[in-house]
Structures are given as C-alpha cells and as structure tokens.
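Memo to structure team: turn this sequence into structure tokens by end of day. - J.P.
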Amino acid sequence: MYDTNATLLGSIPVTAPDLVSVSKKTGAVYVLRRGSGVLSLAKFSGWRNNPTQIATVLITTNVSNTGRYQPATPSLALVEGETQTTLYVGYQTIGIRSYSDNGTTLDLVRDFSQNINSSLTFERIAVDPKNERIFWTRGARSYAVNFTISDWSNPIPKKMQTASKQPFYLDNLTVAPNGLLYG
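Reply from structure team:
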C-alpha cells in the first residue's frame, strides 16, 4: 500500500497477485491470484501490523493464457452490504461466480458457469449493491461490449442497449451509489 506521495506504507507478501480489493468497513484485503494454471481468491486481515491470511478459495485450475483476448483477463468486484460482503469473480473459463465472506471462509453463493458462454471475457465487472445487478465489459475502447444480468431467477447475460435500441458501449464502467453507470 502506498500513500498519495508514493510512499510505501505496508505490504502483503503474495505469490502471483492479479487484482486487489479492500473492504471499506473492515480493512480486509482480498487478492485474486493467477498463476501456474490456478486462479484463487484470498482474504487477508488487512495490510498493517503483519497481516495474516484468513481465508482462501480455489476458483479454478483451468487458467487460460490464450483466447480471443490474450491472455484471458479475470475481474473482481467487491460489494459490501449492511451485514454481508460479497465478491464477484469473472473469468473466461468459469463465467461469473459470487462468494460470500463469512469471516474465516469465502463461500460460493452463485455459480453462473452453465449460463455464460465461456468465450466471453470479463475485463471489468461492476455490481449495483442495491439490487445485485451485474454489469461487465468485454473488450476495450472501440471494441467494448457491455452485458448485464438483472433477473436472478433466470440469470442469462444480455447485451446492453441504449433507449433507442442501439448497442451500448462503455469502457471501464462502474456503478455509482445512486445506481448510475459511469465509464
């Protein structure tokens, strides 16, 4: 961790870190690790005072270094509700999965492997914390295509469209607390 002057404040020794997310409520640090054919998610106590690994979960042993967008890119989103923290992981070979932080374990909540075409990639996942609607981007810049899942009773990804039924393109999207999309 660095401050705004690029001064090192602390670190966590992690093998093959790919993406990091930090809990605003607890300070826990979540690290998505990708290496040697394995994708895993780990939770650490924080980054200060000798952080310890609290939990880890194996996401997949099918890590691809090739594909339509080479190499396949994972994505991670953290959603903190009043009583629950949920992590969403997207990856080409697994689709989207959500994991619940239950203190000392990261437990699978939803697995959309069967409903999402494995040729999709997940450069960026964003989740509206109010209704758990998932948005993600495949590709980048002028090649970006946005998808969403809004119906959890039938979780099938749909390409997003504008109000005039035109393709919706938004690179590096995020959801604001008021539910608006920014990119």
